[in-house]
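Archive entry: two folds, one per protein. Generate the first.
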Amino acid sequence: MHPSITAAYLARYRSLASAAEAAPAVLLPLTGAQRRFLITRHRDPRGRTDVVPLFFAFPRGTVDLPRLRRAAVRLAERHPALCGEFTVLRGTPVLRLGEPSVEVARVPVEPAAAHPEGPAHPETPEAPAHLDGPVRAALRRALLDWPADGPVLRLLLAAGPDDEEELLAVALDHAACDEQSLGLVTDGLGAAYAAAGDGAGDGADGGAPAAVRAEAVAAYRAAVEGQLAAEAAAAGPAAQAHWAARLGALAEPAHGARPAGAARSTGMAAERLPAVTGAARGGVFPALLDAVATAARHLDGEGGGERVLALGYPWGGRPADAAPVLGCFLNTLVHPAPPGPPRDLDALGAAWWDDLDHADTPYDEVVRAARAAGASWSGTLDGLLTFEDLHRRPPLLIGGAAGREVHLAGRPLAAPIAVSASHGEDLLVRFAWDRERYPGDAAETAFAALLATLRRHLGTPA
């Protein structure tokens, strides 16, 4: 049996950390997900960072930028993932600790006359018209132009000259962020803003004590090492056999793998469904999996494809007893979607639960197992599904006001289609697609099929 990818990484990291030119306290190891983000970035011709953004609308004048900057530094000092840089040293991905890696800035907005063709993307149900157009385009451009060497956290504020609201982007390098991290950031940033006071300049209230920073580093190291131990344990023969049986029929699409960094032109559609309550909540994610599979099948060979599709979804959390640290502790799991009509939800749910029993198996190990079983599959995904329970994320409070979350279309995609579902007071489903691959009418038909499948599984009327 091949040595595990995690074990090989740990050997290289320990050798690097113990070398004379690098003190062990300066370098920290990375989880499997963090390493994939760095490797993908280095392979991307544009060197683009995978970014997780949130967007909040506030009444104009609510956000004081110098105070927000002090709050961002205060937050970063307590989280090693926001200090220093994620980098590759001698071929080994690591977090090199340093000073807080944050940017807080106001983004200039071109007047509407500079965009006579109108908004670049259609308005979504949760996006008020006055925040569409120039403001949203300015933030999109700023996030697409994320510097290759950081920072890890960017807080960007934009508003048009006559807008009553301004839009704040809270964006993180994905290597420092997963779903649990989003809640830590919104909660921590609001608390830091309240504590930052109305000082005249940055650093008015001093930095975090050395003991606090050392404790944070120790907690982060323990959480990452616990995650790596779980990943190494999940790379054994039983996990290999499970994923070989599940994914051995996967094959590359006829049009080939998507080139890195290609999907810069994307479309988005959205729909709000009633929230799912009670015991039925446990069936939401399997229902979403089947609905996304239905949409992907419509787009693969115009609905008549006979290929088993590979759908990816992030899953995971901190190891047991780990501190609530910022970072990315997710793994990307792969769901095989065979041809044919929508699946029976009970059978699909049972298979999904079996997959979750092997959720710690690193993605590269999963690809290796599938190929060993005969799959002609490189690891390319036909679609992505992300799901967030909004009840787990505290609101972002700035100056006593709670930011109202809005969503921007036009983000680069890591797969031909991507579905994001947010479950709070309702179930918001957003469907994004690569415009260079699929025309708008085909995407809209696929989204309609997705919604029909989802409504049928959840018993929601059209």
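Generate the second and append.
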Amino acid sequence: MTSRTPQLQAKRDRNDLLTGIAVGAIVVGILVNDSIQRLLDLFAVPGSITVTTRVPAQEITAAVGGGVPATAEMVTLTASGVNVISVASLVIAIVLRALCLISVAVFAVIVCLRLLRGIVFDRVNTGLTFTISILLLLAGLGPHFFETMGLNGVFAALGGDFSDGRWLLFRDGIPLYIASVAAGVLVIFFRRGAALQREIEGLV
């Protein structure tokens, strides 16, 4: 088994960072397209609001073959007469989520570019990583708040109540909360590394 030479390791690190930059750029494009599509879907039916959301599990007959029993937790609803505040809240939820996640991707690409230049442990990388952690948390909590407000209005217009679906909506943000914690761990890594680097430079 051959050991990795410093040159080979450096080349692999460079390729990994370049891949991260390319993926980040693709993610930004996907997020922009997705947010635009969500806004178009929201106003797809003239004079009404269309939303896709979670509801408590309920039995339905799925259109498979001649029809089979199934359980559904996701539904698409179209409602007219939704109040302006609820409509605005749904729009804000889509835009806020997109802005937060696009910013995360952009800042991650900047970190990769700085690492590519050999800049690892400094205040900028630490600050960028901390910002990424906060934005991931905001991407989970902020849109949830506004989407809940919007869905309350949609369900009210349909003569229903969305209170049973709030936890289901919150649950969808759990991956973002976990990612926020993971980014927070990287903040500690960069912060400790920067402190250690300053100590070493002080001894030279």
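Annotation attached to the second fold: The CA atoms of residues 15 and 186 lie 21 Å apart. The chain has a mean pLDDT of 86.
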